[in-house]
């Protein structure tokens, strides 16, 4: 009897899945970089859960899955940065210097661009959000690809309650993020935006 497919937010992309997908494409150094990032990120996020009660690292791993399986983007640095994109926010031990020492300056750069001071409130939080958008808009294309892949995974999880106000999240994405992709003429960004627009359309209907 065929087993029903899991709900999207229950999808688990494992370390073994990742190795099977990329081992034949990456050289040993590149694979070591990616798996090292997996170990660091899975350790940092080990006890975190999302608002839908799923392990937070499932979300991180699915972002990498989007890069690997949907975009076929197998840059070791970008995959490592995708795995690590929240570690500076969620760890009191991991610093940008630690990331740079272990994974190099470009991975550290992407992670720093994608790091937000999430514990701010009130006007300080609004300023941080605006500065984050501006920083991302002037960042490398890889920063945007990782961020848009992360945003797409969140879009796919909106129906499971991962955001308090899903319609606000969608509107914020359309207003502040979609325009970043418009002038880049990048196939991967266009693909990610198209997928998010499909979900936006379904929720609007």
Report on the structure:
The structure is a single chain. By secondary structure, the chain is an all-alpha fold. It has one domain (8-204): Hypothetical protein af1432 (Orthogonal Bundle). It is built from eleven helices and no strands. It has helices spanning 15-22, 28-44, 56-70, 76-84, 87-90, 96-103, 105-113, 122-137, 141-157, 166-182, 187-204. α3 packs antiparallel against α4. The protein starts with 14 loop residues before the first helix and ends with a helix. The mean pLDDT is 94.
Which terms summarize this structure?
205 residues, mainly alpha, Hypothetical protein af1432
Describe the secondary-structure layout:
Elements: H1 15-22, H2 28-44, H3 56-70, H4 76-84, H5 87-90, H6 96-103, H7 105-113, H8 122-137, H9 141-157, H10 166-182, H11 187-204
Which class best fits the helix and strand makeup? mainly alpha
What is the overall shape? globular
Describe the sheet with the most strands.
none
Assembly state (oligomeric): single chain
Order of helices and strands: HHHHHHHHHHH
Q: Report mean pLDDT, rounded to a whole number.
A: 94
Number of DSSP-assigned strands = 0
* CATH C-level: Mainly Alpha
DSSP summary: helix tally = 11
Strand coverage percent: under 5%
| CATH topological fold name | Hypothetical protein af1432
In which range does the helix fraction lie? Answer: 55-70%
Total of domains = 1
Radius of gyration: 17 Å
CATH superfamily: Hypothetical protein af1432
């Amino acid at each position: 009897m065929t087993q029903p497919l899991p709900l999207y937010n229950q999808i688990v992309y494992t370390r073994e899945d990742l190795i099977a997908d990329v081992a034949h494409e990456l050289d040993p150094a590149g694979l070591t970089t990616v798996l090292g990032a997996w170990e660091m990120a899975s350790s940092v996020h080990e006890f975190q859960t999302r608002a839908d009660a799923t392990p937070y690292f499932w979300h991180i791993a699915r972002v990498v899955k989007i890069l690997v399986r949907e975009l076929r983007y197998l840059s070791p640095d970008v995959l490592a940065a995708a795995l690590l994109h929240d570690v500076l926010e969620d760890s009191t031990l991991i610093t940008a210097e630690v990331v740079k020492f272990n994974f190099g300056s470009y991975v550290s750069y992407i992670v720093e661009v994608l790091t937000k001071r999430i514990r701010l409130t009130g006007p300080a939080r609004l300023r941080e959000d605006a500065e984050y958008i501006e920083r991302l808009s002037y960042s490398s294309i890889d920063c945007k690809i990782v961020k848009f892949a992360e945003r797409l995974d969140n879009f796919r999880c909106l129906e499971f309650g991962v955001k308090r106000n899903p319609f606000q999240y969608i509107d914020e994405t359309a207003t502040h993020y979609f325009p970043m992709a418009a002038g880049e003429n990048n196939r991967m960004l266009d693909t990610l935006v198209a997928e998010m627009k499909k979900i936006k359309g379904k929720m609007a209907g």
